[in-house]
Design a protein that fits this description.
Blueprint lengths: L7 E10 L3 E7 L12 E4 L2 E8 L3 E7 H6 L10 E6 L19 E10 L2 E7 L2 H4 L7 E4 L2 E9 L3 E6 L1 H6 L11 E3 L1
Antiparallel strand pairs: 1-2, 1-6, 2-5, 3-4, 3-6, 4-5, 7-8, 7-12, 8-11, 9-10, 10-11
Length: 182
């Protein structure tokens, strides 16, 4: 389980496409030294298992459904990813409870600065939209957010504050290429 509060933004440093899996190394000096083999880390919201670790990063293997339902198949060297380690029982809980199971890929339709914050409109699949409520929570790239508005039968509008814009990869998404895990 995760909280949807991003601990760090890491960088994909190596990618290996194997026969039926994709393996990549995520550089995250902030907490790589605290990871152990088998730990769960949410990478853009997708719960992945640490398969190798070094002083500055860790490796994960991505297979099947995860490759189909996430943008992990599109990561390339230099991609920036939101990271969160799994929650520990008894620790303080911020954000919302997030399982780390990605349902689909959404597409950023627009990003508009409105005063000090940003309004982001995402097109999301009908299957996800059917389960989404206005003022309820949604997780985009592992960031726990509140739905500001439902956009008819196509998507959602969310607002992000400057801190979230600067400390997650949501601020780097652009409508032409902005895909997010939902």
């Amino acid at each position: 389980m995760f909280s949807g509060i991003v601990e760090a933004v890491g960088t994909i440093r190596e990618v290996a496409d194997l026969d039926s899996t994709r393996r990549f190394r995520v550089e995250v000096p902030a907490f790589a030294h605290e990871l152990a083999l088998g730990d769960s880390v949410a990478v853009d919201g997708a719960c992945l298992t640490v398969t190798d670790v070094d002083e500055a990063g860790f490796w994960v293997d991505v297979i099947g459904t995860t490759l189909e339902r996430t943008v992990a198949g599109r990561y390339e060297e230099g991609s920036r990813v939101n990271l969160e380690r799994a929650l520990r029982m008894g620790a303080r809980l911020d954000g919302h409870l997030v399982q780390g199971h990605v349902d689909a890929i959404g597409h950023l339709m627009s990003s508009v600065k409105d005063g000090e914050f940003w309004l982001l409109d995402f097109e999301i699949p009908a299957s996800v939209l059917a389960e989404t409520i206005e003022h309820g929570s949604i997780t985009l790239n592992g960031v726990s957010l509140t739905v500001s508005e439902l956009l008819g039968e196509t998507g959602v509008r969310i607002g992000i504050i400057p801190f979230t814009h600067e400390h997650t990869n949501l601020g780097t998404l652009a409508p032409e290429i902005g895909r997010a895990h939902v």
